[in-house]
């Protein structure tokens, strides 16, 4: 399986938590651990360490997915439809807000 590149930020740069990056890197690491364990070339002690790390990564991925699901629920909460991502918005009076910009 191909390895995914991990982006690194410049030294001193402000970093904000990116759950998608955390999810992707956690999932990639989890896949790597599973491959190593399935190959059967590691000791029992190493397998247990991999298993423990795998449980931690699985929980991190589940939490990231849960947060993403909550965000989706908030977006569709008002009218059970996803919010439009178009650049044109109509204010409550019916006027096109982008026309005045």
Would you kindly provide a brief summary of this structure?
The protein is mainly alpha-helical and about 100 residues long. The protein is built from two helices and no strands.
Give a description of the structure.
With 101 residues, the chain is mostly helical. The protein has a domain at 19-78: Orthogonal Bundle (Helix Hairpins). The chain has helices at 19-39, 44-76. Helix 1 runs antiparallel to helix 2 (44-76). The chain is elongated, with a radius of gyration of 21 Å.
Jot down its keywords.
101 residues, mainly alpha, Helix Hairpins, 2 helices, 0% strand
Largest sheet: none
Helix content: 40-55%
CATH topology of the domain at 19-78: Helix Hairpins
- Shape type: elongated
Count the E strands: 0
* First-last Cα distance: 49 Å
Structural class: mainly alpha
- Order of H and E elements: HH
In CATH terms, the superfamily of the domain at 19-78 is Exonuclease VII, small subunit
Strand and helix map with partners:
Blueprint: H1 19-39, H2 44-76
Helix pairs in contact: 1-2
